[in-house]
Design brief:
about 220 residues, about 0% strand, endonuclease, nuclease
Length: about 220
């Protein structure tokens, strides 16, 4: 790894290193409730909608008490729609409300409501885990990647995880695209925030330009 790459990574992390879970008010730990809230967030983020709207909708669902599969399942469809709408998630609110209810019931039936049992079912295989995640309604490949990117800080089995969108951001910044090479630029603890920052650079070219300018100026 080059000194320039390390400087770029450190600058990006300093300027935009905040996970989407943090933005949604999730204190991520290897315990059932925050993991489930991250799963819901990943589902919301995977739709064609602004990340800020998905984050706010996840907050509103939690504020309405839907923080675990049992409460999500027991909430009425209208309660889920109302919480999503309060967060501005209106374009997909009805379909997503159904998917969240169905997904909560699947988690309860198959994994007793504990996302960690899904990890155990995958037996440490990140590829298998990605497939199991996609069995949840509304959580396709993009949603599975979002979940794994964010959870890698507390699930070392899936580290390093820098998906295609993160690699796209890395390319905009002139950084290597491979997961292993990107992981070597930061500590394992910082990997989720670094991955999220790379995604932001992929989604907004001005971020990449701003970071490169800061590196050039030594800021």
């Amino acid at each position: 790894m080059s000194t320039g790459d390390q400087r770029t990574a450190a600058t990006l992390l300093r300027m935009y290193g905040r996970t989407y879970a943090e933005e949604a008010g999730i204190r991520l730990r290897d315990t059932p409730q925050p993991l489930y809230r991250l799963l819901v967030l990943a589902c919301l983020l995977s739709a064609r909608i602004r990340a800020s709207v998905a984050v706010e909708a996840a907050r509103c669902l939690a504020e309405a008490g839907m923080k675990d599969p049992r409460r999500m399942s027991e909430a009425t469809w209208q309660q889920r729609v109302d919480a999503l709408g309060k967060g501005g998630y209106r374009r997909y609110d009805e379909r997503t409300a159904t998917q969240l209810g169905d997904g909560a019931r699947l988690l309860l039936d198959r994994y007793r409501g504990d996302v960690r049992r899904m990890r155990e079912a995958a037996d440490g295989d990140a590829g298998r885990l990605r497939k199991l995640l996609q069995e949840l309604p509304g959580l396709g490949p993009a949603g599975a990647d979002i979940f794994l990117r964010e959870v890698q800080g507390v699930w070392p089995q899936v580290h390093p995880c820098f998906d295609g969108k993160a690699a796209e951001g890395a390319a905009h910044l002139g950084l290597p695209r491979g997961s292993g090479a990107l992981a070597r630029l930061v500590s394992r603890q910082d990997a989720p925030a670094f991955a999220a920052a790379l995604v932001r650079a992929a989604l907004d070219k001005e971020i990449a330009d701003e970071v490169k300018e800061a590196v050039r100026e030594g800021n």
